[in-house]
Structures are given as C-alpha cells and as structure tokens.
Amino acid sequence: MSIKRLLLTLCVCTITNLHAAANNTELKTISDIHSAYKNNSTTAEQLTRTYIDRINALNPKYNAVISIEPTAIEQAKQLDALFKAGKWAGPLHGIAVLLKDNIETTGTLPTTAGSLALKNNITNKDAFVVKQLRQAGAIILGKANLSEWANFRSSYSSSGWSAIGGQTHNAHDVTRNPCGSSSGSAVAVALNFAPIALGTETDGSITCPASVNGVYAIKPSMGQVSRAGVVPLSSSQDSVGPMAHSLKDALAVLSVIQGEDPNDVSTLNVNRKLDSIAPKPSLRIGALPASKFTVETQKLYAKQLQALKDAGHTVVNVEVKDDLSTLYVDEYAILLYDFKAEINHYLSQTPTQVTVKSLDDLIAFNTANKKQEMLYFEQDILQQANAVDLSEKQQYQKTKARYQALANRAISNLYRNNKLDIVIAPTVSPAWKTDLINGDNFKGSSSSLPAIAGTTHITLPVGKVSHLPVGLSVIANQNAEAAAYAYAAIIDNVLGIKKPE
C-alpha cells in the first residue's frame, strides 16, 4: 500500500471513529442503546470504550469517577459475542453502570467509601444489587466518587468531597456543589459517563445530587432493594437506588436490582409490583409548600403547579399538620447509634490488608493522616457516634419506634386528610457554591419524611433556575410504590424535560 493510500485509509478510519464516538455520546437511554446494538450501528465494546475515553477526558475536571473496572471491555466483548450468537443477556444487555464506591464488587477494585482507611478494601464480592445487574446483562463500568463515609463524618463537610476522589463538581457548573453523598453517581450520568449509576441514600443522598445535576432518580421504599454488600450508615434508613436519563430507565433498573435477599431481612415478604396501577386521566395532587426553598425555586414551582392544572389535574396546597418537633433530633440519634454498631461490624469483617477494624481505629487513622483526611473538615460526627452507648438498646428501640411512627403518620395523614393520589414538592434548591471551608449551604429539602418513613421518593428533572437544574419530588404513601411510579410518569409527561441534555 502506498503512503498516500495509507494516510487516506487512516484519515477515513479516524473520521469514522470520531463519528462513532459522537454518535455513541448521543446514546443515553436503554432503548436507544439497545436499538443501536440491534441495528449494528455500535457494539457494547465500542460504546464501553467511548465511556472510558469520555471519563479519561473529562473526569479530571469533575472528579465524578474514582476507578474504572479493569474487566469492563472484556465484559462488553462477552456480551457482543452473545449477541452475535443470537442471544440476549437480559433487560440491561450491554448497559454500562457506574456504582457509588460504597458498593462492593468482585475483582480487584477496592470499595473505599471515599476513605483512605479503605483504599485496600478489596472484598472480591458482589453486593446483591451488583449480582442482579450482572444477571440482567449490565456492564459494571467502575466506581463513582461520593461524600466520604456517605457524608456522615463532619457537620460542616462539603458534599462530594472524599480523600480518595477529591471534590466532585456539579455537571452544570464546576463552581457549584454536586450535593451528596451520591455525588459522583449523579454527575456521571449527567455527563453521560454511563447511562445508569447506582447511589445510596440515608436521607437525601440519592435525590439531592440527582436534582441538582438534572437526572432522574428513585430512592426505593424500605425492603425493595437489598443493602447487603454496601458499606452501611444506618439500616433504619439506608437504601440503594438508580439514576438515569429517564424515569422509564430508572424503573427498569429498579426492577432488576430489587428482590428478596436473606442477607437483608428488610427485603423479606415485600410487595415489589412496578405496574399494577392503571393510569388516571386526572390526578388529585397535593403540593407541599416551597417557602424553605429559594425565591426563584418557588417561582418555578408555581409555574409547574399551574402547568399541572392546565393539563387537567387538580392541585391542592397541603402541609404537614403533625408535630415534627422531635423527628429530626430522634433521626440523628438513631443514625449515630446505627452507624457505630454497623460500621464496627463492617470494619471487623474487612480483608486482612485493611488495618482499620473499628470506629475507634478509623478516628485514630484520620487523626494520624490529618493532612490528607482532614485537610478541610474534621470528624465530629464520627466522634459523636463513637460516644454512643450501644448497651442502651431499650432507649434506642423506643426512639426508633417513635420517629418512624411519626414520619409514617405524617405522610399517611397528608394523603388521607386531603384525599390525594400523590404528593409533590421541590426536591432541593439549585446547587450552591462549593465551600470547602464552611461546608454546605442547603436551601430546603424534601427528603427526610420519606427517608425516615421508608417510602418511595422519586425526583424528576423538570426545569432550571438560571442554568442550574431543579428537581421535583414525588413522595409515595405507605405501601403505594406502584401508584408513585405510575403517577410520577403522568407528572413527568407534563413537566419533564423530554430530550436528555
């Protein structure tokens, strides 16, 4: 071959590859990706390479991803071979998924929770949700950054910062905070580092980052999804949920990762139907007040409520009438107790190469590594948790029963007293400027009641204040997950941003 012809061939190949990469970055939903596979416009291997290239190019600016799974390309090749043989692996065939780095996986990647203390925490075990993803044909692409220890280390932390991954930056404005603790997961989906990511939430850690980064997310109800294989914060409230470019995709992933698991007793005897509610032409929607959110968020919310009315739905202004004065104090007490008990157990089971085996050890480790671990904020929450007397089990059970009953009653009363189909509210105000010295600056949140009550909480990307996304929360009643899924879809059809950004 002549040099001229070789150069021409290389040029054509390069242009073809650039076009393929450009086309691949436009593939954001499961259905679009599957269509591209089936019409042979791309392969799982090509698409996975595109994600990895995109991460390598953009991640230094955003710090959304901690690590890429070394076997990701091989996973993709195996799925391509399966498809070539006329077989389909499952509903997530060839769909790349990023995992918050408190979710365990087989292989060589550690599960760090963002902490240097767990940099060698290679458990070589798949969490229950990861097993479910693999069985459905998903590609485990890597681990996403997070607020260290799921934002349960310091009372003045900056969401999205970890000693392992640094400060994650908002996908829409790098000077803004990504919210946490599932910050990297939300930013990664928003930047199309992967079409799907998993996050975890104790109170707001899925819904807040999804809202401020403009993606869809579901915080499932308690017992829908197993927490086995996830670094714990509180079994009273912890959940694992999906982030995606559409509600349909988030629900598809939820249907895969949910399931009964004997290693998580909360999942036993739970109803998991996703589609048992017929659509309604007109909903009776309860709109919670927005006075705690920014003024611009309130204005956007008012427009959204009017749009729902114009679409034929009845919108009723509602507010929680129950006395919640003890709720948040009780919540914090439960989280401190749970964290001490559960992190002690988790650390005691880590591989031998992890030297930190207790909360005491962790606090000492952070002190010894202060220049890296406590560069911006310290560990007052860890110290408060460590001071908890775990022998006070009776008081713990009493407090837990009281705060869960109060949250359950508050949500149930909202629905019953106002005869509602569904409850909505702004998820959180737009992202604030990241401040590594003073910490976060939240303006309103809708996460606590569903987090404590253990009900489903969905956030939909429905608009922007200036250039910053604002989500709308859909808060389910007790044992009414299917209704929340169906009615969220109806609301999304009216308000949702139809084309992924």
UniProtKB/TrEMBL annotation:
Coiled coil feature spans: none
A Pfam cross-reference name: Amidase
Keywords: Hydrolase, Signal
GO molecular function: mandelamide amidase activity
Enzyme Commission number(s): 3.5.1.86
Domain named Amidase: residues: 47-482
Signal peptide: 1-20
Name this polypeptide is given: Mandelamide hydrolase
Organism: Pseudoalteromonas haloplanktis
